[in-house]
Amino acid sequence: MIRRKPICHVPRRRRWLGLALLVAIPILAACTVSNDPDGWAPPVVTEIDGRTVILARVDNNLLGAIDVDQADPIVWLFPGIAAGQPASVDDERPFPGLDDPVDAQGFYGPPVPIGADDAELVIADHSEGIVYAIRRDGSSARILLDTEDRVIAGIVVADDARTIFVASTDDHVYAIDTARPPTNIDDRKGFTWIADDIDGRVWGTPALAESSAHGTLLLVPTMNGSVTALRTSDGVAAWSFESGGGIASDITVVDGLAYVGAFDGIFYALDVESGDVHWRAQGSNWFWTSALVANGVVYVGDLDGDIWAWDAQTGASIWAGAFHALERIRAGLTLTAAGELVVITREGTLLGVDPSTGERIWGDPANPLQTSNRVLATPLILADDSVVLSDDQGVLWRTRVGSGRVCEIFPERNSDCERLLDADQS
Q1: For residue 187, which phi and psi values (nearest 5 degrees)?
Q2: Model confidence pLDDT, tens digit, residues 169-217
Q3: Taking the domains of the chain in order of start, what are their residue ranges?
Q4: Whole-prediction pTM
Q5: Which of these, 262, 131, 292, lies nearest to 200 by C-alpha position?
Q6: Which residues pair with 135 in a beta bridge?
Q7: Across 262-417, where does the E strand assignment appear?
Q8: Where are the alpha helices (DSSP H) in 343-414?
Q9: pLDDT score at 152
Q10: Residue 420 CB coordination number (10 Å)
Q11: Beta-carbon neighbour count of residue 60 at 10 Å?
Q12: Percent of the chain as helix, strand, coil, to the nearest 5
C-alpha cells in the first residue's frame, strides 16, 4: 500500500544548499494553494447533444458543463447534479455509476476526452487522488483509479484515445488502459505500467513527444527540477534532464523541442531525442505557467509579471525587451483569431499585447479591466473570439478584446453587461 505524503513535505536530497533552496522555497510558497485546493483547471469547450458547452471548475470545487446561452445554464455538475437530475442542496445520493458520494476538493487539470467519439471525460480530484471517467453527456461516471495520493498534474491521453497517463505527487506515473482499469492501486498487473522512480512530485502536466530513437515519449516535469522522458511502451526512462529549480509548469512540445520554465528563473528548450538543452533564456523570476508556441515564437510569462518572446528554434529575443504586466503571471497566454496576445494576470487584470512588437494594444494597468477574484487558469477563446475566464473562486467571466468591460456569466449572469459587451463589438 502506498502511503499518502503531506503535500507540503519538502523532499530531502543531497544537493548544494543554493539548489535546495531554489527547490524548497517555491514548494513552501505554494503550500497555501494546496492546503486550500481551489484548483486551476482551465475552461475548455465541447459539444453535448448539438449544444456548445463550456467545461470548467465552478463553485464549491465542482466540474460544470455550462451552456451560457440558456436561461438554465447547468447541463450537469460533477459530483453534484447528473444530467436530467433535479438540483438539491441536500442531495447525498452518489453520482450515477458510483457507489458512494464524492467529496471533491479541487480539479487542477482540465477534463480530457477518451474513447470512441470522445464519449467520456477523464479528470482527477486533487485531494483524494481519484481519477474519474465521466460520460460526456453527464449521465454517469466511473472510477478508473484511486492513486491514494494527491494529483495536481493534468491527465495525458495517448493517441489511441484509450490509454491514459496519471502523474501523482508520490513520485509515480501510472499508465492505465481505461477499457480495463486496475481494481486498486496494489493491482500492479492491472496497469499497463508503473514508473515508480520519478525524481520528485509532479505538479506540471506532462506532454507526449515523438522520438525517432525511443518512439513515443512522455515528458514528466517534477518539483525537484527534473524532466524525465518515459517510453510510453513500457515506462522505462529514455533520458533525464536536471534544471536549477523546481518545475511546476506544464510542458509544451513543438517540432522536436520541449519548452518549459523553472523556479530558477530560466526557460529551457530541450531536444526531445536526448534531453540536451537546445537553448535557454533568463527570465526575471520563477516561471509557473505553460508556454505558448505560435508562428515560430515562444511566449511565456513569469512571476515578476514579465512576458517574454523568443524565437522557438534559436532562443533569440523577438522583442526589444520583456512586456511588463506589473502583476504576477500564472495563467497561460492565448492568441485570438485576430492575432492579439491575451494576458491575464494573477490579480485578474486583462491586457492585450502585439505579438510582433511586445507593445500594449489594449488594457490600462492604471485603470485595469479586472475580474473580482484571482485568475490562475488559462483563458478560453471561443469561436466568436470572445474570451472566457475562470477565476479561483469558480466564477466564469466573458469579455471581448479591447471592449473595456468583463461580465460575469456563471453562477450569476450579468445580462446587462453582456448586452453592452456585444454592442461594443458590433
Answers
A1: -85, 70
A2: 999 999 999 999 999 999 999 999 999 888 899 999 999 999 999 999 9
A3: 37-196, 303-426
A4: 0.90
A5: 262
A6: 120
A7: 266-271, 277-282, 292-294, 297-301, 306-311, 323-324, 334-335, 341-344, 350-353, 360-362, 380-381, 386-390, 396-400, 406-410
A8: none
A9: 95
A10: 15
A11: 11
A12: 10, 35, 55
* Range among 145-149, 274-278, 339-343, 413-417 rated most confident: 274-278
Cβ atoms of 292 and 271 closer than 8 Å: no
Instruction: For strands 334-335 and 297-301, give the pairing.
Output: unpaired
Cα distance between residue 408 and residue 398, in whole Å: 6
Domain 37-196 architecture: Beta Barrel (2.40)
Q: In terms of Cα–Cα distance, which of 282, 229, 234, 281 is closest to 256? A: 229
136 exposed, middle or buried (CB, 10 Å; 0-12, 13-18, 19+)?
buried
Answer yes or no: CATH 2.170.190.11 is held by domain 303-426: no
In which residue are the cell numbers 470548467 written? 56
How far is 272 from 207, CA to CA, in rounded Å? Answer: 11
Task: Answer whether 329's CB lies under 8 Å from 290's CB.
Answer: no
What does the angle CA 290 – CA 292 – CA 296 come to, to the nearest 5 degrees?
140
